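Fill-in record for DUF72 domain-containing protein.
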Amino acid sequence: MTIGQIRVGVGGWSFAPWRESFYPKGLPQRQELDFASRKLTSIEINATFYRTQTPESFRRWASETPDDFVFSVKAHRLTTHRKLLAESKPAIDHFLSSGLLQLGGKLGPIVWQFAPTKKFEADDFAAFLELLPGQLDGLRLRHVLEVRHESFCVEPFVSLARHHQVAICLAQSDTYPLIADLSADFVYARLQKSSAAYAAGYCPSEIDIWSGRARQWAKGEQPQDLPYVSGAPEKKRAARDVFVYFISGAKEKNPAAACALIERLKA
């Protein structure tokens, strides 16, 4: 049986509380990415959402991580936080030309995160998806849509994502809707409910549940214990790559949660 690659990580790598719980005491801050990338299998770069990065930064990040490590990258907010998405081409082009390709084979999915107030407008959203290239200079680009408004919980949105073969981010959150519909040849989940009450952010049974779901996705299956908008399942695939990130919640616990899931998947 063919099984996709499962990658697990957190958002960013520079967070002061992690120096008390995740990083070894006294580890220089400049070595934190090196350390984190050898404990985790992926990291979502969040700094790109707030500020345009340089090609030199992307090259440095690539050089400090293992050969099989992968970064996902959040697109700059100027690409998505606008009234008319159809007019975002200059911002998209600027972001994509900012140096992402310096990651080479370590470039994973690109996350396009929309404001919580952004509602689904089919024509405008379709125009936005037409602007997202499938490749750049010969390097494949995989796109993820993280929507945060209930108006996206409709079948036309899922159909549109499937037509363009972009993934819908599964966001486990107390604030935003959870859309589990599969729409691409990979799955992208952002788990945002870690709790300080547990050493690993999630109780062992929850880690078990997400481990099981990740394995099902990797085998091309669709877990039956999640909410789906569309009555029609995404086309059957032999395998899917899977990306799972622990984001927000009790953020100080997220590296422990990621490590716990990685260990559970090994078992």
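KEY FINDING: Residues 6-266 form a domain with the TIM Barrel fold (CATH 3.20.20.410).
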